[in-house]
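Q: Give me the 3D complex with EPU.
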Amino acid sequence: MSRLVIKGGKHLEGEVYIHGAKNSSLPVLAATILCGDICEIHNCPYLTDVDASLKILNYLGCTALRENDKIHVDSKILIHSDIPDKLMHEMRSSIIFLGAVLARTGRARLSFPGGCDLGSRPIDIHLKALRQMGASIEVEKGIIDCRTEGRLKGAHLQLTFPSVGATENIMIAAATARGETIISNAAREPEICDLAAFLNACGAKISGHGGGVITIEGVETLHGCSHTIIPDRIIAATYLAAAAVTGGKIKLNGIVTDHLTPILAAFEESGCLIEEEAEGSITITAPKVLKPMKDIRTMPYPGFPTDAQAILMSVAAVAEGTSVFVENIFDNRYKHVGELRRLGANINLEGKVAVVEGIKRFSGADVQSTDLRGAAALVIAGLNASGETRITRLRHLDRGYDGLVESLNLLGADITRM
Ligand code: EPU
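A: Here is the predicted complex, encoded as structure tokens.
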């Protein structure tokens, strides 16, 4: 079993480049299916979730190949419209293939997706929307079987929650549907805008993305394009946290500062100095003593992202005073709390609220990753801790972080992967 051994207490200083976003790469790769042509996707990180997407594309009949950070997908020929259980279970976002395969082949047969266990994670919003667009869907024994006679039909869809995945699935399915689709209460995350930019570059007619109402005028066919994935705002949050807990100073390059607004506000509240010197880069300087973050409430974008909750909790855990977190997106996203407590954190949980009483410093111990962002929170805690922190179940970290250990070591950390 592989593990990370972190010798904590090192002061981090230097520069780091932020790689492409996992949560953009995955829907964009799924959407390449619709093109029936060649797409080149740049700035794709090396992640097991991206590898899982490539496996699905290759199974479906596409040729999907990586060359450094570029992924080349030729989707001229599709030979399957099902996705085997084993591939579906490799990641949660495999559900994003539903709209793409259905729109391209008129049929999609796949099982319920795997991924992080953050709660119940239903897909009712996806299925309801596709039904409203004319798909007939049967769900039996964990298999979702969707069919459509000819092209899907445009529809006015009112989402009960601005689900990121459902908004993406609908945008993809609607791109080549007959007529106009309007998504009200759509997700507004930067990754939604990146998917829209990709689809529009392929000839789709999507407008309103980034706001709560997205309009998609269906076109008959799409073509290939070259697209560059946006930087990963949660990876950026991770390096900001690494600086904050080590009294460090780190310059982040390759970012979109606007995407980080609620995250930067939290770091500023904790006493960190954030300076934007040039477009695409910021420098964070940690204070001598971190201040608490009074009220972190996770919300759909542009609110504070749930994916940064665990990471910021490791910062709050070593601030002087009491911080309060409220997790509003997932019903089981505090699994990292038990592991942070093993490292000395003082955190009380009641339902969706976590009250964090700051301690002076974490103390190293043996811990297990519980999910992707929980794993990152443990790395942050380990960087601060006295003594050695050993983290197992690294498969979670590998789903979302490309070169984290190497980059942190270049900044001055002492981490070994055994
Ligand atoms: N929901 C429903 N029904 C649905 C869909 C969602 O009830 O049909 C609920 C979910 O159960 C959850 C909430 O709505 O409580 C939000 O789910 P959403 O669909 O927005 O999330 P997702 O598409 O499954 C993406 C990211 C997550 C991120 C969330 C929220 C990808 C691949 N995943 O998931 O990322 O936390 O949006 O921003 O884009 C991560 O990267 O660590 C991660 C978990």
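A quick observation: The mean pLDDT is 96.
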